From TrEMBL:
This is Protein kinase domain-containing protein. Its main location: membrane. It comes from Brachypodium distachyon. Residues 116-224, 232-343 form the Gnk2-homologous domain. It is a single-pass membrane protein.
Length: 768
């Protein structure tokens, strides 16, 4: 049995406030025709529901309606001109379109029609030209962002391509309830389809937004929309045109509002995906259940997410959703929906009971003796009740104050078991780890670095692990360390080493990681024999994987981690030589301040950005600098710090710059490749990216999302790098994770030479 639900739809945009329009829904091939379709009196979308699943029937007739409306408008204009009548086209066209939609509503449903996507095309922003740089940059983003979004645990990605005035900035968000078994494929396919649809439905528009059930996409020529999380873009909303019966409508509105707000609270508190689903059970026989969903982009804070959702709920629910059994609002940064049928995957993350029981009706007044007896009863019970309430309130306040004092230094995070593991699930017994590592035997030591020694271990069931024994220099208490470790354990990306457990017994602080058979990159890259195993394809895989892992830490994770110690020894390789970044988050766990970070742990690795080495200032751009050094090391097979003690005192960056300016970068390629490295554009691109990342000014270095676009696209034009400020530092005895154990003894002397020639100002450079 198929019943028809009429859904109203409204398009809200900064320039079209309070104008109801089909322009964002009905596609036409030109902006001029789109403007003709902005019908003020009509703004509705027809939806049919078969077995509780909505399917909008507009798409099959959108071309027919738009064409007919345009033709009738033209006929009206011609008639007016011949007869000298007042202009009727503005009224005739929408009325005709309304009639056509009404006739279509009574026609049989069209099987297979799809309700979404909906698009918003920002024509006043201007158009781009076919085959131009702007279109090429859109396609470059379309080749990378779907994969980045699907590989992110947050199902979220941002990116940029090209240079102004043709730079394109994009954001993609997949719905958080995508089943884990096919999250990658369904998310990637939805975002890829959104890019295709945007270029068709918003042909040549420089700004386009696509709203679909599985994903949201927006691209623009305005960079600020990526950083401005309060810019919620053009909004679209739809509501079920049916009405809840008048006698239960107030109670239904209260129940659905309570559920939507509770779901918004849940989504805002979710640090991983800013996503929540809810169910209210047992409303009444007609609507036994109410379902809801809320989501924000994961780069928003909890407060920003809740404010975004609260603004939309507060503005649109009273105006559009009163007495309605379903409704939804799409925004670029946040969205919510409620229905009387289940529309999301999996079990609801939040469950609420049905409507609260009504207050008992006041008892009818009895005889005079009853009324006279009520006075003494109240005189006795009211003081007792008041005293009890006062006692309870005092206890609650005291308890809250005590809890606040105990946890005043910690940050409140969601404890949702679906998103954040409890510390109990991560804890391992010290006896188990001692047995696995043969009591931390020297023969099992894989390496030693600033954070502590690393040991290989084998659990009783045969699983191989790597155990990092943190040094006692950690200044954090056990409880705070537990909180941070739980959060770090939930940073999950295919290019990050997975933390599988912790042990905090007998003053020990042990972190248990997955074991990487090929150990760390430096043990292979800088070994004349082993480096032959790193062919050109493996090196490209390592560069791309590290870039994606850093983008996740900087932009896509809930913690926004700055690594601060990225280097070859902190890049581990699995059996297939896929890279995994290690030691992320440990700088945060150790609570370093800037001076300690510079002087006692990271100094001397040769990967430090100038502003970090000299002033203790670090940011995502200092990680980008370290990445640039790493890229150049992977290409050349040489350590940046290995030049410090040479007679020429020329470091790797100056050597690469010299060959770059001469156009002889082929001479830099690692000799162990034996001529197997391709020259030409790919080699130039990698050197260019590396030099862009090591520029002196942090503002000039690209973000890691931009680096990923550069690496994945063959059409993006790269800027010419400026000459870097070379800083040589050498400190022996420091390596991390799986690096070879170095001799230990007295602390070596640090040698630092700063070279900042920069005599030449280069604005444009094309290597030969």
């Amino acid at each position: 049995m198929c019943h028809v639900n009429t859904y109203m739809i409204e398009t809200l945009h900064s320039r079209y406030l309070d104008r109801r329009t089909l322009a964002g829904i009905v596609h036409s091939p030109s902006a001029a025709v789109r403007r003709q379709q902005q019908f003020s009196p009509v703004s509705f979308l027809i939806s049919s529901s078969l077995s509780g699943v909505n399917c909008v029937l507009l798409l099959r007739v959108q071309h027919f309606i738009s064409t007919a409306a345009a033709q009738l408008a033209a006929m009206a204009i011609g008639t007016r001109r011949r007869l000298g009548l007042a202009p009727l086209s503005f009224y005739l066209a929408p009325a005709t379109a309304s009639l056509l939609l009404t006739l279509f509503l009574h026609a049989p449903p069209l099987a297979g029609a799809q309700p979404l996507p909906w698009q918003l095309c920002d024509d006043p922003a201007g158009n781009y030209t076919e085959g131009g740089a702007y279109q090429a940059n859109i396609r470059a983003l379309a080749s990378g962002i779907p994969k980045n979004a699907s590989s992110s645990p947050a199902l979220f990605a941002k990116g940029a391509a090209g240079r102004a005035p043709d730079a394109v900035y994009a954001l993609a968000l997949c719905r958080g309830d995508t089943a884990s078994a096919n999250a990658s494929s369904s998310c990637a396919s939805c975002v890829a389809a959104a890019f295709r649809n945007a270029q068709q439905l918003c042909a040549y528009s420089r700004i386009a937004t696509m709203y679909d059930d599985p994903c949201i996409l927006r691209y623009s020529d305005r960079e600020d929309f990526l950083a401005n999380v309060t810019d919620n873009g053009g909004k679209m909303l739809a509501w079920n045109a049916n009405n809840v019966s008048a006698d239960v409508a107030p109670a239904f509105d209260a129940a659905s509002g309570r559920l939507v707000n509770a779901t918004a609270d849940y989504a805002a508190a979710d640090p991983r995906r800013r996503f929540g689903t809810g169910e209210l059970d047992g409303f009444d026989e007609t609507y036994p259940k109410i379902y809801s969903l809320a989501q924000c982009t994961p780069d928003m804070t909890a407060a920003e997410c809740r404010a975004c959702l609260g603004d939309m709920i507060g503005r649109f629910t009273p105006r559009y959703f009163v007495g309605k059994p379903g409704g939804r609002v799409f925004g670029v940064r946040c969205n919510f929906r409620f229905e009387t049928y289940s529309f999301f995957s999996g079990r609801p993350l939040l469950q609420l009971p049905g409507a609260l029981p009504p207050a008992p009706a006041p008892a009818a007044a009895g005889e005079g003796t009853t009324r006279r007896g009520a006075g003494p009863v109240l005189a006795i019970t009211l003081p007792i009740a008041a005293a009890a309430l006062l006692l309870i309130a005092t206890c609650v306040c005291f308890w809250k104050r005590r809890k606040h004092t105990e946890r005043k230094a910690s940050v409140p995070y969601s404890t949702n078991q679906d998103d954040i593991q409890s510390i109990d699930s991560l804890l391992l017994d010290l006896s188990t780890l001692r047995a696995a590592t043969d009591n931390f035997a020297e023969s099992n030591k894989l390496g030693e670095g600033g954070f502590g020694a690393v040991y290989k271990g084998v659990l009783s069931e045969g699983e191989e692990i790597a155990v990092k024994r943190l040094s006692q220099s950690s200044r954090q208490g056990t409880e705070e360390l537990k909180t941070e470790l739980v959060l770090v354990a939930n940073l999950q990306h295919k290019n990050l080493v997975r933390l599988v457990g912790v042990c905090l017994e007998e003053q020990e602080k042990l972190l248990v990681y997955e074991y990487m058979p090929n150990r760390s990159l430096d043990t292979i890259l800088f070994d004349p024999e082993k480096s032959r195993d790193l062919d050109w394809g493996k090196r490209l895989k390592i560069v791309g994987g590290v870039a994606r892992g850093l983008q996740y830490l900087h932009e896509d994770s809930q913690l926004r981690i700055i690594h601060r110690d990225l280097k070859a020894s902190n890049v581990l390789l699995d059996m297939d030589f896929s890279p995994k970044i290690s030691d992320f988050g440990l700088a945060k766990l150790f609570g370093w301040d800037e001076s300690q970070a510079v002087t006692s742990h990271i100094a001397g690795t040769g990967y430090m950005a100038p502003e970090y080495a000299m002033r203790g200032q670090y940011s995502a751009k200092s990680d980008a600098y370290s990445f640039g050094v790493l890229v150049l090391e992977i290409l050349t097979g040489r350590r940046n710090s290995s030049f410090a003690n040479s007679e020429q005192s020329v470091d790797l960056l100056s050597l690469v710059w010299e060959h770059w300016t001469r156009g002889t970068v082929e001479e830099l390629v690692d000799p162990s490749l034996g001529g197997r490295a391709p020259g030409g554009p790919m080699l130039l691109k990698l050197v260019n990216v590396g030099l862009l990342c090591v520029q002196d000014s942090p503002a000039d270095r690209p973000a890691m999302s931009a680096v990923n676009v550069m690496l994945s696209s063959s059409t993006v034009s790269l800027q010419a790098p400026s000459r870097p400020t070379f800083c040589i530092e050498e400190m022996e005895g420091y390596s991390d994770m799986y690096s070879a154990t170095y001799p230990r003894g007295s602390r070596p002397t640090k040698v630092q030479t700063a070279m900042s020639p920069n005599e030449v100002s280069i604005t444009e450079l094309e290597p030969r």
